[in-house]
Amino acid sequence: MAIIIGVISQKGGVGKSTISRLIAREFAAQGWHTKIGDLDISQATSFRWRSRRLQSGIEPDIPVEQYGRVDQALKIADQYDILVIDGAPHATQATYQIAKASDLIVIPTGLAVDDLEPGVMLAHELVQSIPRDRIVFALCRVGHSEAEISEGRDYFRQANYHVLEGELPDKTGYRRAFDEGRVATETRYVGLNRKAERLAQSIVDRIAIISSERAA
Ligand SMILES: Nc1ncnc2c1ncn2[C@@H]1O[C@H](COP(=O)(O)OP(=O)(O)OP(=O)(O)O)[C@@H](O)[C@H]1O
Ligand SMILES: [Mg+2]
């Protein structure tokens, strides 16, 4: 049975597809049998991104399949080591189904109050039926201000949620890479790749814990 990572949010456009692809690429590169289940059938962002990746001939290939329902995605979980579920834009019934099925729930978030509050509200709803330690926040599309980043981290900590180390700044260099079918660690800029690697590594570290707990 695959380790399932659900990438969900209350708000649209926060970086779910970006984070899903980053995670999947990291594990695929390490030889894990990896799949992205794209639950956003209206936009099919990750599905279409994979076509661009194939056209650009970028390795490793990252299989992406579209699913209209969460249970359809879960059916294939036993064929993979890692299944990353890229959630639909807004929190729906499917969002809660993804969360229930996930070993790790990643909620990408920006740093404006308009982003922080809905993120925490979603997490508050989830912890009513899901263990708190399965939920992590990933800071995405952040600006240059270290103070703002640090305040954002404090906001989640005070609400008693885990925030992943590392963050993705909002940069044209990332967008250009995504346009070519790359992930945030595969840009033309060493500095941007390093930033993304830090965030990716903190997810890998969480999964290593889950993986060793399973093996025990
Ligand atoms: N760090 C970044 N720097 C620049 N652009 C970014 C960054 N992260 C994401 N983007 C861009 O922001 C937009 C939204 O990102 P993404 O598609 O990952 O969000 P999403 O949460 O999946 O959106 P949706 O809710 O529509 O599914 C995309 O156009 C993406 O290319
Ligand atoms: Mg998306």
Short description:
The mean pLDDT is 96.
Fold blueprint:
Elements: E1 3-7, H1 16-29, E2 34-38, H2 45-56, E3 64-66, H3 70-75, E4 82-86, H4 93-101, E5 104-109, H5 113-126, E6 135-142, H6 146-158, E7 162-169, H7 172-179, H8 190-215
Parallel strand pairs: 1-4, 1-5, 2-3, 2-4, 5-6, 6-7
The protein binds adenosine-5'-triphosphate and magnesium ion.
What does this protein structure show overall?
With about 220 residues, this protein is an alpha/beta fold. It has a single domain, classed as P-loop containing nucleotide triphosphate hydrolases (Rossmann fold). Helices cover about 45% and strands about 20% of the residues. It has eight helices and seven strands, in the order E-H-E-H-E-H-E-H-E-H-E-H-E-H-H. Helix 1 packs across helix 8 (about 190-215). The protein is globular, with a radius of gyration of 16 Å. The two termini are about 15 Å apart. The mean pLDDT is about 95. Magnesium ion binds near residues 16 and 17. Magnesium ion binds near residues 16, 40 and 45.
